[in-house]
Design goal:
The complex is a heterodimer. Chain A starts with 8 loop residues before the first strand and ends with a strand. In chain A, strands 1, 3, 4, 7, 8 and 9 form a 6-stranded mixed β-sheet that branches. Chain A has a 3-stranded antiparallel β-sheet with strand order 2-6-5, with no helix packed on it. The model of chain A has no long low-confidence stretch (mean pLDDT 96). By secondary structure, chain A is an all-beta fold. Chain A has no helices and 9 strands. Chain A has strands spanning 9-12, 18-23, 34-39, 46-49, 63-68, 71-76, 85-93, 98-101, 105-109. Chain B is mainly beta. Chain B has no helices and 11 strands. In chain B, the strands form 2 sheets. In chain B, strands 2, 4, 5, 6, 9, 10 and 11 form a 7-stranded mixed β-sheet that branches. Chain B has a 4-stranded antiparallel β-sheet with strand order 1-3-8-7, with no helix packed on it. Classes of the chains: A mainly beta, B mainly beta. The interface between A and B is medium-sized, with 27 and 23 residues.
Chain lengths: 110, 121
């Protein structure tokens, strides 16, 4: 099982705001930055948010990230059909001395 | 344009070995940490291993420690993972990914297309 806990699914209608949560511990999220990856069906993952809330060049501003204590969230404003994908949070774990991913959240645009 | 191209996947019997390669282009290969991440069919992402730009520091997931060895040849812009004692649970698509910096193992901004490894008799 994953050390970072995400809801397995989320959904929303076009234009809505959707959030995906990611819960960890003091050895991972609590002490390190959180990154979010988007994986569209049949494709390689893409870095969506890094360092808790930084968007790489080319990522739309409607994607945002936040972190508080041992939890983090990804927010998508103005949901679009092309946002239908799997979303993964990731953080370095100091106890495991390795990178851990959340189990992934499948986002459905209704 | 940054590109990562994996190769070396295939069908291997349990207990067998395989070496995957990942060739990078469009960036100064030796300046960036590189990682391997795998994804079993229908499952989530699982980090496998990372190493620094020089290759001097390596990290492994517990699930592969002692069986997999990551390395790089910066003169060839190529990342490798030598996989020994393969098990059915190693069956997955293996992605190589580039870190955003020399020690960025968690922030991977470019990914290859993946190469499939199937461990089965």
């Amino acid at each position: 099982q994953s050390v970072l806990t995400q809801p397995p699914s989320a959904s929303g209608t076009p234009g809505q705001r959707v959030t995906v949560s990611c819960s960890g511990t003091s050895s991972n999220i609590g002490g390190n930055t959180v990154n979010w990856y988007q994986q569209l069906p049949g494709t390689a993952p893409k870095l969506l948010i890094h360092s808790n809330n930084q968007r790489p060049s080319g990522v739309p501003a409607r994607f945002s990230g936040s972190k508080s204590g041992t939890s983090a969230s990804l927010a998508i404003n103005g949901l679009q059909s092309e946002d239908e994908a799997d979303y993964y949070c990731a953080a370095w774990d100091d106890s495991l001395d390795g990178l851990i991913f959340g189990g992934g959240t499948k986002l459905t645009v209704l | 344009e940054v590109q990562l191209v994996e190769s070396g996947g295939g069908l291997v019997q349990p207990g067998g070995s395989l070496r995957l390669s990942c060739t990078g282009s469009g960036f100064i290969f030796s300046s960036y940490a590189m990682s391997w991440v795998r994804q079993a069919p229908g499952k989530g992402l699982e980090w496998v291993s990372s190493l620094t730009g020089s290759g001097g520091i390596t990290y492994y997931a517990d699930s592969v420690k002692g069986r997999f060895t990551v390395s790089r040849d910066n003169s060839k812009n190529t990342l490798y993972v030598q996989m020994n004692s393969l098990r059915a649970e190693d069956t997955a698509a293996y992605y190589c990914a580039k870190g955003i910096g020399g020690y960025s193992y968690d922030k991977m901004d470019y990914w290859g297309q993946g190469t499939m490894v199937t461990v089965s008799s």
